[in-house]
Amino acid sequence: MHQPDEDRFRAILPEDIAWKPFPAFPPRARLAVMVGHPAESGPYVVRVKVPGGTKLMPHKHPEDRIYTVMSGVFYIGLGETFDGGKVEAYPPGSVLVLPGETWHFHWAKSGEYVTQVSAIGPLGLEYRDNHDDPRLSAVESRGTHSG
């Protein structure tokens, strides 16, 4: 039995990748769905592009994830508190295994990076501090502040 989107040969060329904003990411970060349907049960492959200087504050995913660094240097730290001194640098070609429910953070410390994430969906993302969640801060900024 084939997995979703795996029943026929196809190729995705770099120029055909559809980079889109993702509500759970900082505004300038982008996500591209390569294979599968991350919101549903089953395997998926996505790519994440994060511009230089961007920080993804401490968060976790319910699913186990395998990251492959495609380009740039991927900086990741483990823990519930952002600490720029605790990030480790991984060059292109590196593969990282991140068990589900592991608190971690990212920092595009030396410029833009692209990672490819393989996992079994559904994709989840929970921030340690609600103030860091763009999905919630967008809601709060609509209507709660009077100008």
Give an account of the 3D structure.
The chain has one helix spanning 134-141, and strands at 30-35, 42-50, 55-60, 65-71, 74-78, 88-90, 95-98, 104-107, 113-121, 126-127. It is mainly beta. The protein has a single domain (14-141), classed as Sandwich (Jelly Rolls), CATH 2.60.120. It is globular, with a radius of gyration of 16 Å. The termini are far apart. The model is unreliable at 142-146 (pLDDT under 50).
| Count, helices | 1
Q: What level of helicity do the residues show?
A: under 10%
CATH topology: Jelly Rolls
Average pLDDT for all residues: 92
Q: What fraction of residues sit in β-strands?
A: 35-45%
Strand order of the largest sheet: 1-2-9-4-7
Topology order in helix (H) and strand (E) letters = EEEEEEEEEEH
CATH C-level name = Mainly Beta
Task: Report how far the terminal alpha carbons are from each other.
Answer: 57 Å
Question: What's the architecture in CATH terms?
Answer: Sandwich
- Main sheet: strands, sense, barrel: 5 strands, antiparallel
Q: What sort of overall outline do the alpha carbons produce when their principal axes are compared?
A: globular
Overall number of strands? 10
Structural class, please?
mainly beta
Stretches where pLDDT is under 50 for at least 5 consecutive residues are: 142-146
* Annotated CATH homologous superfamily: Jelly Rolls
The protein's oligomeric status is single chain
Query: Radius of gyration, rounded?
Result: 16 Å
Q: What is the domain total for the residues?
A: 1
